[in-house]
What we know:
This protein is of the alpha+beta class. The protein has two domains: 6-123, Probable inorganic polyphosphate/atp-NAD kinase, domain 1 (Rossmann fold); 137-296, Tumour Suppressor Smad4 (Sandwich). The protein has nine helices and 15 strands. It has helices at residues 22-34, 49-57, 70-81, 101-106, 113-122, 151-154, 157-163, 166-174, 237-249; strands at 6-12, 37-43, 63-68, 90-95, 125-133, 137-139, 142-146, 182-188, 191-203, 207-208, 212-213, 226-232, 258-263, 265-278, 281-301. The strands form three sheets. Strands 5, 6, 7, 8, 9, 12, 13, 14 and 15 form a nine-stranded antiparallel beta sheet that branches. Residues 151-177 have low confidence and may be disordered.
Amino acid sequence: MEKTPKPLMMLINPSSGRSVSEPMLGAAVAPFCQAGYAPTVYFTTGPGSATSLTAAHAPEYPRMVCLGGDGTLSDVVTGLMLLKPEQRPHIGYIPMGTANDVAATLGLPMRQPQRAAEKILNGSPLDYDVGEMIGVGYFTYIAAFGAFTEVSYRTDQDLKKALGHLAYVIEAVSSLAAIKSYHALVEHDGGTIEGRFIYGAVSNAVSVGGVMKIDPSLVNLSDGKMEVLLVREPASPAELNSIVSGVITKDYSSSPCLTLLQSENVSFTFDESVPWTRDGENGGRHVTLDLRCHSHGVRIYR
């Protein structure tokens, strides 16, 4: 007797990365069909549509698959967080974007849809913590301010498609002269830190922009806490060198300008309005900002 196909929601961003070709779509869908699933495909039509499609249709499915970049996944997770926990299907992520920081964190093959689909089918779901910028929105892997944080959402989409990750590097180099510091009071679960910072991030990932990396042994995606990385303004060339060395070696204890800690809740108070990014997109400008971690917000395959 033939088995009834299992329902599967497949959400696809056709514009992610250097665009998704028809052969790639076929390679992504085929393994699920062969495994007994009947995918219902939804295509995003613009910014925010992944969130609305997920919130509207995800409760109808026990499992869903997102094909796109980290921004698409972020929109999907936002849509899921708008639902009750029991309405949220398990997520599979087929990374097709440019930086793919979440894919690097989860150990998923990038821009190889068939291999990623097979990993999802053979993998196990992970309880994944989700961050929230209170009053702004949810984030899957990072909220940040300061040096280079505007790079991802200011980099031209056509340049991303043509050059891939190199486009981010070009934009970052062009922004070096514009780096400034911000005075901030940072309150976390373990106390407070005050100073002038050129960069600050609240994250749940081992790779940010494919450049900033954190030792994977220090990152637990399911511990109910986010990693908080602060980079103080260097007072000398030696301190600047210590920052570069610490970032390259992922030893954030090696420089007096680097602080890495973990916290469930974090609050920032600045002397001026500071621009933030949320999962690589514009996160608005803020004088005060509270962030928190939603423990086990979603279940994602790795």
